[in-house]
Write a structure and sequence with these properties.
Blueprint: H1 2-51, H2 53-64, H3 83-86, H4 100-111
């Protein structure tokens, strides 16, 4: 009788262990699906914003300092705030009579500072088609 009970326990132990492990994997995969769906929703919202011509126009005006024909664009340089120059890639490379290696080193330091992750004009590696 005890031998039969032990046999039944050993027979059921392996499938129960597999069942518990599969349930855990299913729960983990469901969490991955939820996070991936949130990422898909975020990318769809970004795609919808970038499809809006008014948003692109505002983005080009703000980020690239574009103006319409006939308009005059001004960039105000203030000694206290350097945001106008800081937003232009490569603007911090010295444009004077400094040595070529100084300019090269400055541009290398600039290349080490990537643009912000939320920059809509920068293509992220996960945005590329597979």
């Amino acid at each position: 009788m005890i031998l039969a009970g032990v046999f039944v326990m050993l027979t059921l132990a392996v499938p129960l262990r597999a069942l518990i492990q599969e349930r855990r994997e299913i729960k983990d995969l469901e969490q991955q699906v939820i996070s991936q769906q949130a990422k898909i929703d975020e990318l769809n919202n970004r795609q919808a914003r970038l499809a809006d011509p008014a948003y692109l126009q505002a983005l080009a005006r703000e980020r690239l300092n574009y103006v319409f024909p006939g308009e005059i664009g001004f960039v105000v340089l203030d000694e206290e705030t350097n945001t106008a120059i800081a937003g232009v890639p490569g603007a911090l490379v010295p444009n004077d009579d400094s040595a070529w290696y100084t300019k090269l080193w400055s541009s290398t330091k600039l290349a080490d500072n990537p643009p912000p992750a939320d920059d809509p004009l920068v293509v992220q590696s996960d945005d590329l088609p597979q």
